[in-house]
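Thread amino acids onto this structure.
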């Protein structure tokens, strides 16, 4: 009889742990508001002309992995691009505490050689 009681308790705990972590196992994404805030914070950084290919998912209950591409002017030096990247990471951490942020820098050249305005991408979130 005691073995059945212990097996029931273990099963109950296993099911509750599974339910708590199911969203993490399936790759739950942050809310649209958090993604908008991260995009707006990025666009507020001087030198960041646009944001695209933003991907985010929870990797732990309070930890978000964020991957994004940031457009900069084509003539931006490596040192300037690195400073922009650091500023973007700091800005994202301010709006999403506990975020792990990977920023890739792209030259902002659209078709015809013009610099595209990707600030309107914020409305797509």
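Threaded sequence (125 positions):
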């Amino acid at each position: 009889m005691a073995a059945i009681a212990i097996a029931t308790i273990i099963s109950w705990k296993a099911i509750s742990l599974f339910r708590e972590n199911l969203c993490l196992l399936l790759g739950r994404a942050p809310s649209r508001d958090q993604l908008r805030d991260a995009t707006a914070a990025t666009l507020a950084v001087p030198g960041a002309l646009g944001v695209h290919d933003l991907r985010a998912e929870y990797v732990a209950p309070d930890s978000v992995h964020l991957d994004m591409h940031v457009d900069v002017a084509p003539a931006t030096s490596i040192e300037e691009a690195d400073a922009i990247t650091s500023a973007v990471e700091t800005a994202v951490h301010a709006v999403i505490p506990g975020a792990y942020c990977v920023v890739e820098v792209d030259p902002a050249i659209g078709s015809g050689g013009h610099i595209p305005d990707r600030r309107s991408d914020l409305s797509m979130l």
